[in-house]
Structures are given as structure tokens and as C-alpha cells.
Amino acid sequence: MKVLIHLLFILAPILSFAQVKGSVDSMSFYFEFNSHEIYFQNKHNSETKTKLSKLKDQSLILRAYTDSLGSKEYNIKLAEARLEATKKFLNKSFPDQFSIRTEVAIGEDLSQKSDADKRRVDILVSHAPKNNSADLVTKKKRKFELNVPIQLEIQFVYGRDEVLRSSYEDIQFLMETLQADKTLFVTLGGHVCCGTDSKNLSGMRAERIKQILVMEGNISGSRITAIGFGNKKPLFVEDSEEHRQANRRVEATFYKK
């Protein structure tokens, strides 16, 4: 079922410079200033087209962004136009090859990216088999106890609340678990590494996961609590980048009322 959500707040794309587990691919189409036309003279767009041509029977999530110029209303309309251009291209070039699960017109990207990198549509491609939620959870063999925190492999770019692409498998687990049992609630605990958390980055990271669950999983925000714990509960001594990255995480605690 397609869902189009008009948003005035940021949901950053799932990025990666880490090893990908194979469950999700992320790619983008980039646009010229104030344009919604897809030009394949752009090297990145050409590479994205090639990647898409090699995929079949996948479910897509589309997120459209603009740069920081213009009003919020104008940027939402421009993001919508970029979504439509992307869908038109997919339907024309790859008929019946993809299903679009979610469409998100976000508008202005408030990240620290350059304006050229903000003018884009991100395409998230799920490689999970088309089974029901219960089957997917069973295949992952994930188990949890109520009121007991689960350590998930949800990790972030250093100093930011941008989720690493390799984390999306566990985000999907959260999504499917909450979708399968409407009586479940979850507390998301955000954690950071390296020094103080004066900007509440840990809380922002927990809130980012909540946003993904609400927008892409159609899960009620009233079932999700996001809390930041700062750097008070590290998993490892921060003596390497690998350990610091592991400490930048979100844990989940399921419960029922």
C-alpha cells in the first residue's frame, strides 16, 4: 500500500560507509537547482539507473529532498514533483519490476550536506522475501522478553543521527514486530560515545528511529517512547573506532500496558 507523507521535519536518508549486510540497498537520483527532471548525464544518476536495472521484484521506499533555498511550501511541492518524476521513470523503464511501498515528500534537507547533495530522491530497496511479518520475524530467529532491553545493530554516523544503511535489517525487525502485535509498545534508548551529550544526540538518535517506524511502518507514535541516555551506558571501552561505533546505538525494550 502506497503512503505519501508530507513532512516539514527532517528524516535523513539511510547512509553507509560500512559493510552492507545485503538486506537493503540505498541509491539516489540527483536534480539540478529548482528542477525535477532526471538527467542521466549526471554520473550518479547513470549509476543508479544501472543498479536498478539489475534488480527484480523489489519493494521500494522513496524519499524526496530539496536544498535549503525557498519556502517550506515551495520545497514540499518541489519534492513532490521529484517523487513523481522518479515514479514515472521507474514505471516507464522498469514496468512491473518494482512495487513502491512508501513515498515520502520531505522537502528541505536540514543536514550538513552541500546543496547539490540535498537535491535528490533517495531510493531504498528491500531484498527481503515477500512473506508476512510473522514469517520474517521467525526467519530472523529474533527473540525478546517483555521489559528486557534488546541490543540491536542500529548504528550511526559519528557525531550525527544519520543511520548507517547496514542497520536497516534491525529497524525492519522493530517495524515488523510492532506491526504483528498491536498490543506491544516499545521504548527506544539512544546512546552515544566519546564525551558529553550536551546536544542530546542520543535522544535525537532514538527519535530518528521512531520517525522511521512511524512514517515507513505506519505505527502509531503513541506506542513508541524515545529516550536519550547519553554516554552513560557504553558497551565497550572506547579504545578503537569499532568500539566507539558500537557504542553509538539504540536499544529497544518491548512492553505491554
Entry summary:
It is built from seven helices and nine strands. It is α/β, with parallel strands linked by helices and 257 residues long.
> Quick one: CATH superfamily of the largest domain?
OmpA-like domain
Which strand order do you get reading across the main beta sheet?
1-4-3-5-2
* CATH 2nd-level architecture of the largest domain: 2-Layer Sandwich
Roughly what is the average pLDDT, rounded to an integer? 78
> How large is the share of residues in beta strands?
15-25%
Taking all Cα atoms into account, the compactness measure Rg is: 18 Å
Number of E-state strands: 9
CATH topology of the largest domain: 60s Ribosomal Protein L30, Chain: A
Describe the largest sheet.
Answer: 5 strands, mixed
Based on Cα principal axes, name the global outline: globular
Helix content: 25-40%
**Unreliable residue stretches:** 1-24, 128-140
Give the N-terminus to C-terminus distance in angstroms: 29 Å
Secondary-structure class: alpha/beta
Number of helices: 7
What is the domain tally?
Answer: 2
**CATH class assignment of the largest domain:** Alpha Beta
Report on the structure:
With 257 residues, this protein is α/β, with parallel strands linked by helices. It folds into 2 domains: 4-126, 2-Layer Sandwich (60s Ribosomal Protein L30, Chain: A); 133-255, OmpA-like domain (60s Ribosomal Protein L30, Chain: A, 2-Layer Sandwich). It has helices spanning 43-53, 72-93, 115-118, 133-140, 168-180, 201-217, 241-247; strands at 4-6, 24-30, 58-66, 98-108, 120-126, 150-155, 185-191, 224-228, 249-255. The strands form 2 sheets. A 5-stranded mixed β-sheet has the order 1-4-3-5-2. Helix 4 (133-140) crosses helix 5 (168-180).
